[in-house]
Amino acid sequence: VIELENIIKDFNMGTITVNALRGISLTVNKNEFVALMGPSGSGKSTLMNIIGCLDTPTSGNYFINGQNVSNIDDEKLAAIRNKEIGFIFQSFNLLSRQTALENVMLPQIYAGVPKTQRLLNAKNALEKVGLADRVDHKPNELSGGQKQRVATARALINNPSIILADEPTGALDTKTSLEIMKLLEEIHDAGNTVVIVTHEEDIAAHAHRIIRLVDGQIVSDKPNTPI
Amino acid sequence: VIELENIIKDFNMGTITVNALRGISLTVNKNEFVALMGPSGSGKSTLMNIIGCLDTPTSGNYFINGQNVSNIDDEKLAAIRNKEIGFIFQSFNLLSRQTALENVMLPQIYAGVPKTQRLLNAKNALEKVGLADRVDHKPNELSGGQKQRVATARALINNPSIILADEPTGALDTKTSLEIMKLLEEIHDAGNTVVIVTHEEDIAAHAHRIIRLVDGQIVSDKPNTPI
Ligand SMILES: Nc1ncnc2c1ncn2[C@@H]1O[C@H](COP(=O)(O)OP(=O)(O)OP(=O)(O)O)[C@@H](O)[C@H]1O
Ligand SMILES: Nc1ncnc2c1ncn2[C@@H]1O[C@H](COP(=O)(O)OP(=O)(O)OP(=O)(O)O)[C@@H](O)[C@H]1O
Ligand SMILES: [Mg+2]
Ligand SMILES: [Mg+2]
Predict the structure, then answer these.
(1) Is the shortest distance between the CB of A41 and ligand 1 below 6 Å?
(2) Residue B173 touches partner A, C-beta closer than 8 Å
(3) Is the pLDDT of residue B227 over 90?
(4) In B187-204, which positions are buried (b, 16+ CB within 10 angstroms) versus exposed (e)?
(5) Distance (Å, whole) CA A154 – CA A111
(6) For A134-190, how does the pLDDT look when each residue is reduced to its tens digit (9 = 90+)?
(7) Closest partner CB to B170 (pick from A146, A166, A171)
(8) B109: left (phi over 0), alpha (psi -120 to 50) or beta
(9) Which candidate, A99, A92, A86, places its Cα nearest to that of A157?
(10) How are the residues of chain A apportioned to helix, strand and coil, as percentages rounded to the nearest 5?
C-alpha cells in the first residue's frame, strides 16, 4: 500500500544543501502497524510528509496503493491525500480562528458530507479523544495535549485507510497516551494501515514492526510482538 | 523565590467559565529543582504562565523574589520577566521569519548586549544544544526537536536565575533528552532555580521535588532523590 524506492530528499538552502533523506526504500503492506523511530533531525517528519503526499521527493519513486505519485500535479496529489490518508502533524496545524469542533469538521466539508451529519461525526470524534467538554474552545484556549487530541480526531474523522501519526502522544500524560494508542489499535484492527513516529519505546511497543532512521537512512527494520 | 498564595485562575468564555486553577498555594525556594506533573488539561501550563509573569491570576497573590506581582502593570511585569526568568514554552513560540540564531539573540537585544557579543553568545548557546550546524535555519526549516532546542537556547541565554521549562524534552529522543536534562542540571548546580513540567517519570526523576496537579489543584508534593 506504501512503496518507496530509493527516496532522496534534499533541502536546498542556497549556500548549502541539507540531505534530509539519503535513499529510503521501504514497503508497507495493508493492515500493518509500523513504528518509525530515530534521533531528532534524522528525517522522520520529512519521510512522513512524503508518504502523506504533502511533499515530493527530490528523486526516487513513491507508489501509494500501486499508483506512482512522485511526479503528479498538486491537484491529483491533494485528491489522493484527502481520500486515503489521515495525518496527525507533529505540530498539530490547527486553524487558530476555528473551534475544536470546526477544525475536526474540516475534512468532511472537503468530502462533501452534509452539515448535520458532520456536526454529529465531529462531536463523536472529539468524545472519543476525551474532549466532549472542549468542543467550542479555539486552539489558544486548549492545553498542549488537548490540541494534540483535536489534531488526532480531525485525522480520523473520514475513516482513512492509511493513518500517519507524527508523535501522536508527545504532549500527553501516560493515561491519555494509552487511550490514544488504544484508539489507533482499534483502527488498525479494523483493517487499516498505521504508521506512527515516536521517540518512546513504550509507545513503539504497540506496533508490529519497528523501523529506525539515522541521518536520513534506515538502519534497522524488525518485526515486533506488540504488547 | 516563588510564592503563590491561593491562586485562582478562571477563563471566562461567555456562557461558561473554565476553572483552570482552583486555589494553588506553593513555595519554591532558591536553588530548588522542581518537576510539575499531571494529566493533560490539569492546569500545568496555566500555572507556569502565572509563575513566569506571562499571565495574572483571577485572585490570590504571587510573590517573586519577595515582590508582589499579582497586580502590577504590564510594563513592570515585563521588566521582571526579562531580567529574572527564562521560559521554554510548550509550543516553542519562535519567530517564524527569523533564523535560529536571530531567535536566540532576541533576549539579549532587550538586555542591551552589544551585537558582536550577542552573536557569540547565541552561537555558543546553540552549540550547547547540538545545533551549531543549524544556526541559519528558520523554524520551518527545522525538525520538531530542533525547534524545541532553539527555544531552550533562547531561554537560557541571559543566564536567568529562574528557569521555567514546559515539557522541554517532549519532542526529543532519549539521547538528546538526556543532553538537555544535563544542561538543566548544570544550571541548577550553578545556584539557579529550575521548574520543569513533564509527563515522563524518567525526566521528573532528575528533579529534587515532584509536585502533582489534578484538575487545577495540587494533590501531592514530595521530595525526590534525583538520579
Ligand atoms: N525546509 C527545510 N529546509 C532545510 N532543512 C530542513 C527543512 N526541513 C527539515 N530540514 C532538516 O532536515 C532534517 C530532518 O528533519 P525532520 O523534521 O525530518 O527530522 P525529524 O526526524 O522529524 O526530527 P524530530 O524528531 O526532531 O522531529 C533536520 O536536520 C532539519 O534541520
Ligand atoms: N484561554 C483559555 N480559555 C479557556 N480555557 C482554557 C484556556 N487556556 C487553557 N484552558 C483550559 O484550562 C485547562 C488547563 O490548561 P493547561 O494548558 O494549563 O493544561 P496542561 O496541564 O498544561 O495540559 P497539557 O499537559 O495537555 O499541556 C484546560 O482544560 C484548558 O482547556
Ligand atoms: Mg519530526
Ligand atoms: Mg501544557
Answers:
(1) yes
(2) yes
(3) no
(4) bbeeebbbbbbbbbeebb
(5) 13
(6) 999 999 999 999 999 999 999 999 999 999 999 999 999 999 999 999 999 999 999
(7) A171
(8) alpha
(9) A86
(10) 35, 30, 35
User: Sign (positive/negative) of CA torsion B128, B132, B137, B142?
Assistant: negative
**Of residues B81, B79, B27, the one with CA closest to residue B49:** B81
Closest Cβ–Cβ partner in A41, A45, A176 for B40: A176
Q: Which residues on A lie below 8 Å from B171 (Cβ)?
A: 40, 90, 167, 170, 199
**pLDDT value at A26 more than 90:** yes
Ligand 2 site residues, Cβ closer than 6 angstroms? A 134, 137, 140-146, 171; B 11, 13, 18, 20, 38, 40-46, 90
The residue to which cell 506533573 is assigned:
B37
Phi and psi of B57, rounded to 5°? Answer: -70, 160
- Angstrom distance (rounded) from CA A61 to CA A70: 5
